[in-house]
Predict the structure of Histone deacetylase domain-containing protein.
Amino acid sequence: MGFCFFNSIAITAKYLRDKLNIGKILIVDLDVHHGNGTQQAFYADPSILYVSLHRYDEGNFFPGSGAPNEVGSGPGEGYNINIAWTGGLDPPMGDVEYLTAFRTVIMPAANEFDPEIVLVSAGFDAVEGHDPPLGGYKVTAKCFGHLTKQLLKLADGRVVLALEGGHDLTAICDASEACINALLGNELEPLPEDIVHQIPNMNAIASLKKTTEIQSKYWKSVEPYSVPVDCALAESQKQEREETETVSAMASLSVDVEQCIPQEGSRGHAGLPKVAGES
């Protein structure tokens, strides 16, 4: 639809399948836009598992395809996985949401599929720095390095990254560097501890629940997503604390305001000029 004349990943996958007799190929599409062309090319092909994480917003974000229930057809049914983020940018998806998607959907299904090679549509327009019309998400460049490191556990490390989307030079450079460091086996900059243990935002939870509910019918390793009880409790307690602090702050503010209002007949009224109508 105008963003590429030749789909490098799709051509590569077909070449590997038809010319080199590679039996099972995994395609992971990280671009913030759904890979509608790649999906269409292999929609009925059980030898190629296509997985896409993308901003979807119930079909209102370009190109509008990539719903969770688009799972493939005929012999390819179940070999198309769409993690379709919804909810717009309230709040935007970030590291926590992408790491959770890998942990709960992508890596379990990929391990079960057991590919001979992994092809990555390495679009970096989900990286922070892109304006809302181009993505608006807040995934860090170093997170993409850690996602690449996870993919290297598959197919004996036979992983190919093809640079695709990305409309901010700094984001493209930083994310590319992080991914190449992962490919080289270099030590990656660690992610903050709170990111690792944080639960996704509510929109992401809803998206993951929808995807896992559908895909659990095809993949034994993909279980319907649910927030761990201890995490949910911690998040609930955090929200309660924040609400309590807000209420306390408002109460304190109202008390301060009352104390500042001079009472009728008090000395605070003395010396103030009377205005028309004041007794």
The radius of gyration is 25 Å. The chain is about 40% helix and 10% strand. Strands lie at 25-29, 48-55, 80-85, 117-122, 159-163. The helical segments are 8-18, 36-41, 95-113, 141-151, 169-184, 193-197, 202-215, 229-260.
